[in-house]
Every structure is written in structure tokens, then in C-alpha cells.
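sorry for the late reply, my laptop died twice this morning and i had to redo everyting from scratch. anyway the thing you sent over, i finally got around to it. pasting the sequence first so we're on the same page, its 178 residues, then the predicted structure underneath. double check i copied it right bc i was rushing
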Amino acid sequence: MKPLANFIDLEKLSTQGYQWQGKFQLTQFPRLAELVSQTDIEDTVFFCKINYLASIYWLEFSVQATLENQCQRCLQAMEFLLNEQVKLALLEDKSQANLLQEDDWLLLNDVVNMVKHERRLPIINMIEDELLLALPLVPKHDLNDENCVPVDILVEEEETVVEEKNNPFAVLAKLKDK
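ok and here's the structure:
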């Protein structure tokens, strides 16, 4: 199976369309790979389709994968189910937004790269952006999860000796009392 394309030529896309499905490697999404613990994703279901309908490019993709993050309560590994379905309109100009019922749209000029008079859509970067938005900001186990023991319980509390320092305002306090 061929890998997911990095870029798609928009002119070819408007006549031929684009569709891909299969498993992806985390190496294709370097920013996502930095945030998850594993090096490969098992049991990934990935489907990507781009259509050109009514003068609007439509990017649709769905991904189901189990990712591994670090719980911020206990600092142990935890699994996170990524089940994301995205439908995004890619518009030539803002006036087309009035034709849409969906709120998810981008302007093509903001995302397209021009290479030798070809308008290229950076499909990998766009999908990676959406996957990053789907990740939890602070990954953590559920409160009643028996595998999660918060770090503050695991760390032995050290007694700290508080030394009294000379207060520079002590002299003023004495003057006030007089």
C-alpha cells in the first residue's frame, strides 16, 4: 500500500479526486509523534477523501487509533482512544462561507503552497493539525482508575525546616508599638 501523500495538486484533484485508506506511521506526523509515547500505532483505521463539489474542495477523514500518553496525575503511561471524524471545507474566498452550513472551513490561500505554478495542498500537515487538536490538553486517568496513583502520594514528604530570616520591617514594627 502506498503511503499517504504529503501534497496534493489541486488542479488534478478537481478532475480526479483523491482517496486513501490504510494504516499510517507516526513518522509521517512528527509533531504528533513528539506527544505520544509509542513509536508505531497498531490497529489504526484511517480513511481520507478529498472532493471538489460545487466549486468547493472538501477534505474528509476519519481515524481510529489507540495512542499512549503520559498521565499528568501519576506520570505513568495511559492509553487514549483517538476516534476523530473531520469534514473541512477549503474555500477560494470568504464569500463562499455563506453557502455552507458547517462552521469548519479554511481559506485555500492560507494553506496552499505554490510550487512551479502548481497549487499544492499540504495534506499531511492539515491532517496532523486536526489530530493534534483532538488530543487532550492534559492527559490523565479517570479519578477512580486503580492504575493511577498520584505522584504526590508516591513522593515521601520531606520535612522542611523554615529558618526565620531577619525581617527588614521588624524595626518599623517596633517603632509602631512605641
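Residues 8-149 form one domain.
thats about all i looked at so far, will dig more tmrw
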